[in-house]
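I trust your eye. Have a critical look at both lines of this record:
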Amino acid sequence: MNDILIESLRSVIVFVIIVILHWRRREYAIREKSGFSYIILGFYFILGGCLLDASDNFPQLNQFIILGDTPTEAFLEKVMGYTGGFLFLAFGLLRWLPVIRESEKTKLHLETSRKELADSEKHFRELATMLPEIVYETDTAGKLSFANDRAFELTGYTKEDFEKGIFVLSLIVEEERGRAAENIRRILSGGSVGITEYNMRRKDGTIFPTMIFSALYSRQGNIAGLRGIIIDMTRIKQMEAHLLQSQKMEAIGTLTGGIAHDFNNMLQGISGFADLALSSGDLSEKDRNRLKHIEEICANAACLVRGLMSFSRKEEPSFTYLDLNAEIRRSLELLERILPKSVVIETDLAQGELPIMGDSNQLMQILINLASNASDAMGGNGVIRLSTAMRGFAESPPFLALKPSDYVEISFSDNGTGIDSSQLPRIFEPFYTTKKIGKGTGLGLSIVFGLVKAHGGEIYCESVKDKGADFRIFLPKAPQEWKGPGRGDEEKGRETLPLPLSLLLVDDNREVAKSISEALCHLGGCNVTTAHSGEEALRLYNEKMNALDIVILDVGMPGMDGIQCMREIRRMNPQCKVIFSTGYAMASLPRDEAGRSAEGIITKPYRLDKLLREIRKITQ
């Protein structure tokens, strides 16, 4: 029994020694879940048996195993002879175990690297799928080998089409394929073409602009094809076109404003001399009527100029108390002249007065733009129906952002082509137009929308394709007890000044200065000194400061303008009374450096009576 225990104990000790030896050499791999590890473990069990048997015959062997001493060659020859060389082979194998283990680690590292590479490629493709632009790869023949979801979404092709085979050149419009093919050859040969622009064709035949960046890529050292990014340039091109259109319209507006200003000066000269001629007492009735007709033409031309000023944003809105029905009747006279004769305008205006606070010129512009759009939609042949009504809302209507109140409604409808439901939400956007290039700017309805909003109103459109469109405008009703200086409220008859006055008239246009100066002298009994620049005005005012009652200054003059001239004059005499004369309507009176405003402002072209009233108002 004791022998058995001793033998068992010795076996355990030997096994533990073997394990310790294996750990000391860092060769133990039981925790590695590989077949090689289990073979080594089995080998150690066999080796343990051999050691147990050898240790019975060679006690000195235990000392070498435990202490790690190197045995002598003679001792090893005896042990090898006893074990048949197996123990020797075992110790030799132990020497090669580090090499074998390193080989196994290298294999595991390669497998890990392959897995990480596969995960990285999967991650790349997932990111490419999520990108908002097209990411693609082709083989050397130009056939698509990879495309993200955006590619199918933008081109209209399906994954079934992709499986059948799509060549990248087939996506380029025909006239640009030669250039694209040459660029592909250059990249495949190692060259570079940078970022290029092409027009691409969708599966349904529609064309869209793109910007493409392509580069060569390889696999395992061999050229595999091209990969790159395709950016849809549709939105950017639209913005570029809108910017160019905006710049063009701004340039036209600047030109229009300048022409309108000069035209106002011409009208002022014509109107001034006509007014002066009418004051003569020796005119025949026929000549008087002719001069009155000239004045009427000047007044109509002045309305046209104010419209040009509004277009160029040189005319500030001037809200006054207006009767909407009267304004529409006045606008109809102009619409009948500018619309084709085949367009019929039917009206149904509400009875009585429809009071609003508005700008007469802007209301006319609203109607002109709507009528122009309607005429185009009808092809210059159809019926426009224009009606007005009073509307009261006890609650805010669900379709408009209006407060509960009383409103004046304008309904403007036509029997034209109508507006598609998909386009209806965008019709008031600037530059949005469904007309062909050269047929519209996309500004008409956006201007209407802005003018209606400026009046505190709302506009919306109802339309069915091929059944016309109906625009409805709601403007706040003005309180009827308020009676401001609306149209037709100007005083009648000739104005007379209380006393002869001395005036300094400053205007760079000599004809305007001459006509106004003669009229003031002849009709107003004034003593008038004229100057044609701000610098000349300062010199004359310095000489005649004490003798001058009023200075009439033109705003827009080359060199020193009227506002700067007023500030310099007020430095000499803070009490100087100033009236501004301008071809542009101004929202407020200009002020000097001390914050004092001018006494009055009058817009060209004006009748002499209006100027005399302004002078009388500030001298009383």
